[in-house]
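User: Sequence in, structure out. Go.
Assistant: Echoing your sequence, followed by the structure tokens.
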Amino acid sequence: MKQIKDKQVHHENKKAKYIIGGVIIFIMVSSILGIIGSEGSGKIKFGDYSFKITDRGTYELKIQNVPFEFHFLPSSFTNNSFSGIEVIQGKKVVYTTSDPLSDIAQDIAETEYLLGTNLIKLGIRPIPSYTLEGVSKRPVITCLNSTPENPVIYLEQRDETAIKPFGNCLKITAKTRYEFFAVKDWIVYKLLGIL
């Protein structure tokens, strides 16, 4: 009698192993087919523009074969009160400045770098600077130094995410890295004429 029970338990264990194995094989095959099927469809349309989803989870848009990389799609900016793009539109040189002692100075510096990369592609030369003396060899620039020929983009950590013009200075405030990425993307979309 014990041998019959052992055979039944062994048969049930074998059956469970086949079921679990079948489920794992199904998941693996589905994953492979999903990857193969999504290779050509990694694009998102916004009006006349087609964005490619990158391996980094960002969105790439090519304009006249020049790639621009974004963290947010244009549809993310339908309800915002950002303004002031005219401060830097059509300029050849723009100073970017920030407080090097900010709690999120690295995040601001990364935003400054990414924004500068896109500004260069648009024919605008960014000049990185700081608001304080003695921290680096960068020039010391604040909104008070801005002129029509040399406008300033001032990135500052604040609780409010905003872009506002102050004379010839475009003041960008945000609290987190991703909020800074969002305002960076808004600026580039506006300069490209997408928004």
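User: And one key feature?
Assistant: The chain has two domains: 1-41, 83-192.
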